[in-house]
Amino acid sequence: MSSKRLFGTDGVRGVVNVDLTPEVVLRLALAIGTYFRPGSRLVVGSDVRAGNSFLTKIVIGGLISTGVKVVNAGLAPTPALQFYVKSRGFDGGIVVTASHNPPEYSGIKVVMPDGVEAPRKVEEELEEIYYESRFRRVSWREVSGDATRVYDVIDHYLNNIVELVDKERIRKSGLKVVVDPANNVGALATPKLLRTLGVRVVVINGDLSYTPSRSPEPAPENIGDLISVVKSVGADLGVAHDGDADRAIFVSDGGLYIPGDVSALLLCKHIVENRREVTPPRVVTAVSSSTLVSKALSAYGIEVVWTKVGSIIISRTMMELGAIAGFEENGGFIYPKHQYVRDGAMSLALMVELLSYEKTSLSSLIETLPKRYIVKKRVYVGRELLPRVYEEIRNRFSEVEFIDVDGLKGISSRYWFLVRPSGTEPLVRVFVEADSQQLVNEVLKELLDIFMEVYGSEVRVA
Ligand code: MG
What we know:
The chain is built from 15 helices and 21 strands. By secondary structure, it is α/β, with parallel strands linked by helices. The strands form 4 sheets. The chain has a 6-stranded mixed sheet, sandwiched between helices. It is globular. Magnesium ion binds next to loops.
């Protein structure tokens, strides 16, 4: 196995023409083409980013030279492309996207025949082929013609979403929704979806541009315009996508930002209470998500399975164990009746369906949820002594249930915490959520005291 690593947590990412040069992308395309059997059919699509026009051509050229057949999907949200691969029986797909990363980035994501992103094992094989330059060179007779251009990827995706929700009920509810696709591919799908469902739509940042008006990351600090417009037009809901529209972050009527695990909780309850889908009785999410969901769903006999952080692990766990839904706390929601991947338009369709069932507004629904207090800290220490920290935490928090698939998560009835080393920086993240500020402070103090004792008093916390 190669010791060098090319793929990050979700594909290969880099700044265009700095890390992600034409040469790197060509070699990557050659490696991907080599990995798939000769004659395989692969779909290639992209989001809107500087460089994607030439990077996509390089990907297509590289793939064709290895003897695979390429279908060019053009611009499409990542979940639309993933759905196309799965439902049309392709051998795989490649998305040229950097998702929520800043505009100067692009990336390459590999999709398997089931529509889910390639697992680490496949990435390792691709890295091996890449670093050893073991590219398949086929004879001129086996090089297929040009890529076939298809134009039905987005409509095919949206049609299936519309089939899955109660269109008449949504139409009758007369909702108004503001959409902010960050000047990217969500603009090609989401407004159309809403209009098909009879929802009145206001779009901001809707023209396609590689210099977007807001950051591709739908974080609270980046969606101020959406919040203002939701308020000023009196909308029932606002939705912000990331660059490739697999994530949906919601804003309530009145302009309240809704964290991804809170919207996931509402969607899960909707799936159970209104859509009456209770089997397999399981919801899958990463340890970094709130325990709000497990508390709310336990009343229905639905269990939460906690995984390591990463959407691909959530997808694969859902496929293995079966689940009614899965999610990440950043707005990535997975509804397996559609597909086992994060899906911005699908989660929006479920959200407007939820509102069509409720007699009340989204902001009043949020008010009925338990109040919670949160603190996030960074502890600047290495990993060496973490096992001792974990041991001491287990000793002192005797009333707590522990989950140790990724760092250490502790869950009690009134609070939960997560102590987890960062994957990218030399620090440990400490996260506490509780039903009062005082309890947050107490739990945090106890955890930080343990770090001080194990690492010495000079531990830096920020
Ligand atoms: Mg994304």
